[in-house]
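User: Hi! I'm working on a homework problem where we have to compare a predicted structure to a textbook description. Could you give me the structure for the chain below?
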Amino acid sequence: MDNTITGSSMPFEYITSDPGILGGKPCIKGTRISVAFILELFAGGATHQEILQAYPHLPAEGIEEALRYAASAFKNEYILMSEVLPRASA
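Assistant: Happy to help. Predicted C-alpha cells:
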C-alpha cells in the first residue's frame, strides 16, 4: 500500500504516513525520520549539509520536501481566540 501523502495542489513524493511507523507521523519515505524531526534539526541551527552528513540515507529532495510539507500544513491554519468573561456574583 502506498501511503505517499498528497495535497490538494502539491503531491509529496518523499513524504509518507504509516500508522505502523512513528504512530503515523509524516516521515521521509523509507526512513523513520519524521518531518517534525527535520524541522527540529533546522530550528536547532543545523544546515541542510549538516543534516545530509548526519543522515546520509536521507535524500536531499526529501529534506526539501519536508520543509514544503510543513509550510503547506500551516498554510491555512487559523488561531481561535476567546475571551473569558468574569462570573456574575451570586
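For your comparison, note the following. The longest helix spans residues 60-75. The beta strands are 4-6, 11-16, 27-28. Good luck with the assignment!
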